Amino acid sequence: MSQPTTIELDAVILGGGIAGLWTLSELTRRGMAGVLIEARALGQGQTLWSQGIIHGGLKYSLSGLLTGSARAIREMPEVWRACLAGEREPDLSGAPVRAPHCHLWQTTDLRSRAGMIGARIGLRVAPVPLAPEERPTVLRDCPGVVARLDEQVIDPGAVLSALARPLSDRIILAPPDAVRFERDPLVVAVPGARFAPRRVILCAGRASADLRRAAGLAGDAMQVRPLRMVMLRAPAARLPELNAHCVDGNRTRVTITSVIDAGARRIWQIGGEIAERGAAIDPPALLSAARAELLAVLPSVDLSPCEWSWYQADRAERATPGAKRPEDIGVIEEGPFLTAWPTKLALAPRLAERLADLCGSPQAGPWTALPAGLHHPAVALPPWDEPREWTPDSAVAPG
Ligand SMILES: Cc1cc2nc3c(=O)[nH]c(=O)nc-3n(C[C@H](O)[C@H](O)[C@H](O)COP(=O)(O)OP(=O)(O)OC[C@H]3O[C@@H](n4cnc5c(N)ncnc54)[C@H](O)[C@@H]3O)c2cc1C
Predict the structure, then answer these.
(1) CA–CA separation, 73 vs 68, rounded Å?
(2) Distance 175 CA to ligand 1 centre (A)
(3) Cα of 238 from ligand 1 centre, angstroms
(4) Which of 10, 38, 269, 389 is positioned for an S-S bond with 32, CB 3.0–4.6 A?
């Protein structure tokens, strides 16, 4: 069988999460010819499993100091807000936001108050304390301060759809074992197409480690930090909408985001410290611990109509000493290869600009249509719409 013609490109991107799609969009806007190869479904692994909060840095400055992480991320809420309003490229106005802002609430602990004050340092998005009547119902009786924080909560699936829609002819589906790298000259081959790119951009989350090995690059450049996220599900009328962080000192005890699932039930996604600790706890014990923590921070919530579940999600990042959270995006440049991690969903615009700068100016000539017969990926399902076991609250509650 004859080989397909080799197509000259400025870049091939492997991985269609927020990092890969935003980068493809940025390259296309700068006149570059790029193709994105996705192995399974867009955003599977992290983007679709995230809480979708466009952080402005508060979470990283609860100690009262403007940290490197806060400095890197503090411009992001404005960038996202403009894209979601259709006032800036990429135009994400087709992606409805889940919530225009989050709330922040505190236990009565004195150190929490210090954290709330310190958090205002140098941030574009600072907490605005609310009068009792302005609070969400479920936080009305909280003894500590309740504040509004202008961090939007996006719908990651809707954002990926909005990014992918205008680029669908450049996004192809090919399973990992069907992708081959050739060197000298550099070629990325998939069944039915051969690409000769100037740059290969790896942003496949934790699978970038395998891709790096397949491309002959050192495999120890990245780290994986696991989370075990807890989910609560109930009829929408029985569980209030809440998008909020409970902060205690400089810790985020829980971060709750709300969404309606495919069966019209309300889901609470529960992250924060409980999910960090949860990675080392077996699932039944995790659900009990999460239940106790939730009742400690939200005593008025009625859990009786709820069911519980959990999922494991691994944050894939550039390796750091001591496997700490990186303060910023991570990019490694090795010859024509760029390996990239956004570190946070919110930082995707910053990562895409950096990658596009590294790709330089367009050289591959005008875009030509890809061969017919290639497959195109769908957006992944969020964890609550995938088949999984749910446990009634009565079975999680202490006997
Ligand atoms: C539970 C959780 C909650 C989070 N909450 C937030 C939050 O509220 N706010 C925030 O800013 N950040 C949050 N994050 C971090 C954020 O989700 C990630 O930083 C971001 O989504 C990473 O995007 P990505 O595109 O690099 O990776 P991914 O979203 O993992 O995308 C990788 C893509 O590569 C594809 N792929 C895999 N293997 C291959 C292969 N061999 N070839 C081609 N493609 C491949 C996958 O199918 C996937 O589509 C959270 C993370 C987790 C885990």
Answers:
(1) 9
(2) 17
(3) 31
(4) 10
pTM assigned to the model = 0.96
| Nearest-CA residue for atom 2 of ligand 1 | 50
Residue 45 Rama label (left phi>0; alpha psi -120 to 50; beta): left
The closest alpha carbon to 44, from 173, 170, 166, belongs to 173
| CATH fold of 6-395 | FAD/NAD(P)-binding domain (3.50.50)
Which amino acid, 6?
A: T
Start-to-end CA span in the chain (Å): 67
DSSP 34-67: EEEEESSSBTTTTGGGS--B---SGGG-TTSS--
Residues pairing with 311 in the sheet? 229
Q: What is the pLDDT of residues 101-157, one digit of tens each?
A: 999 998 765 555 555 655 565 667 778 889 989 999 899 888 888 999 999 999 999
CA within 13 Å, CB half, 352: 25
